[in-house]
Amino acid sequence: xxxxxxxxxxxxxxxxxxxxxxxxxxxxxxxxxxxxxxxxxxxxxxxxxxxxxxxxxxxxxxxxxxxxxxxxxxxxxxxxxxxxxxxxxxxxxxxxxxxxxxxxxxxxxxxxxxxxxxxxxxxxxxxxxxxxxxxxxxxxxxxxxxxxxxxxxxxxxxxxxxxxxxxxxxxxxxxxxxxxxxxxxxxxxxxxxxxxxxxxxxxxxxxxxxxxxxxxxxxxxxxxxxxxxxxxxxxxxxxxxxxxxxxxxxxxxxxxxxxxxxxxxxxxxxxxxxxxxxxxxxxxxxxxxxxxxxxxxxxxxxxxxxxxxxxxxxxxxxxxxxxxxxxxxxxxxxxxxxxxxxxxxxxxxxxxxxxxxxxxxxxxxxxxxxxxxxxxxxxxxxxxxxxxxxxxxxxxxxxxxxxxxxxxxxxxxxxxxxxxxxxxxxxxxxxxxxxxxxxxxxxxxxxxxxxxxxxxxxxxxxxxxxxxxxxxxxxxxxxxxxxxxxxxxxxxxxxxxxxxxxxxxxxxxxxxxxxxxxxxxxxxxxxxxxxxxxxxxxxxxxxxxxxxxxxxxxxxxxxxxxxxxxxxxxxxxxxxxxxxxxxxxxxxxxxxxxxxxxxxxxxxxxxxxxxxxxxxxxxxxxxxxxxxxxxxxxxxxxxxxxxxxxxxxxx
Length: 651
Hints:
15% strand; 22 helices; five-stranded antiparallel sheet; disordered C terminus; single chain; eight-stranded mixed sheet; alpha+beta
């Protein structure tokens, strides 16, 4: 070691050098075992042991914490069962959508087709051109109706239709609309556009045509019971347009409220005319926060309806008429009967995808099992791409007031269809400026639906709400007795109508209660910190206080130590003008309260540490332990006198 190095070490006390400072802080650290790494006078085998032990603990702690974070990022949710049962009366009864598999009535198709052929033949006899024929009274409207029926018919094909097999209606008439559709597809682009323009002119009258051409609820649903009480069916069911045609729905929010339609929209006025006033008022006030009723609440609203207890007597029972004599070649299935789907009261029905068949001449029992999933409020802290569900208010839809996966999917397909096909289907959410799809758009519509479906599809972001009710069903059926083959019923238009091949349908919750599942975050911020802190405390003795202590050591304390060293290095020897003080005895501590002598040239805040450093710098190292015994005091006094440095009085 050089003299200069030796001198530098001697002028700086060990606890003020960098190595001494760090070693001292490590010894004072709360971390387990770390102090043995810098403890002096340890045998090398002991030191190696503690190096291995501390390194292993640090490595194991890092492994445990990283594994915890990986698990949290990979599976941030946990699904558990609630400890208490949820009563059936707390859950809304599902909306029930029932559709006839036949889309259009055969006699009406035949009437329009034959009338068109007759008018067209008359025009040809008069040698009228096509332009002159279109100017004939009501002929353009008749042609539009003819073309619109084809638009309705081919929005959903049956299995046999894909193979272009010959299909006949219930009365043996050929497939008029299929032939018309083939003729339209064979037209060039310019002529096809002419026919599309004709249809667009009469779009405002499309609703009335659709209503007349399809099966109406008054003729399909004849008798109704709810909770063993006979009720008018028109107060329970209203009509809704779906991909499956004109359908009847029970316990669903009116589509004009769900779709935020304007009051002057024709669809709004049509629905309002068929709904009870109480239903409109209560559905307008509905909030999804009231979807699941509290445990101690009572049912004081009629909509949405709730089943009081499990079992068939507390559910819905209806008598339905398939009207087989009105079947045409325009149908979604090659069978006869109905399709039924239960769904959320605030969701659009996916009858084509999930409908369950209801055969004619049968008594069908449908037991519904609700599956309730409740999302806790702490889910908002989890990334939605990992939880795959939406908390309330997180996802808004343009065309629907309430969010559901079904509504999102329907809106997504509609928007995707309009971007790719430049048209949209009649039953989909749309505005008045969007063109309706025609015969040549069938392939594009099918392609859009295929591209939108599935987890990898365009609509893969349509996750369910974190709190939702799904409905599973089990179906059993029995054939009706032969002497029940006909049934007389009345409508507001006709009396003593005959229904043949009708079915009786019972829909009900089969249980009184259920255990709901909960979506919870696996760890919230507090739990994640607690788990990580527990692992670090177990392996290293880590705590928040230890972390704060570590930060203090290497920030505030290190800074003040450094500042103290800088100030000590710049202090000049003090020139004492009052030499008489040197002969006075040194008092390290004053316990008598004797006043301290006044030294004019002494700084107001005398720094004993700085003065001691000056002494040591001029005299070389001395014993750091300054006691009050006479020998040490005399030695120190000699140093002070020889260097003419005043020794301070400490009081």
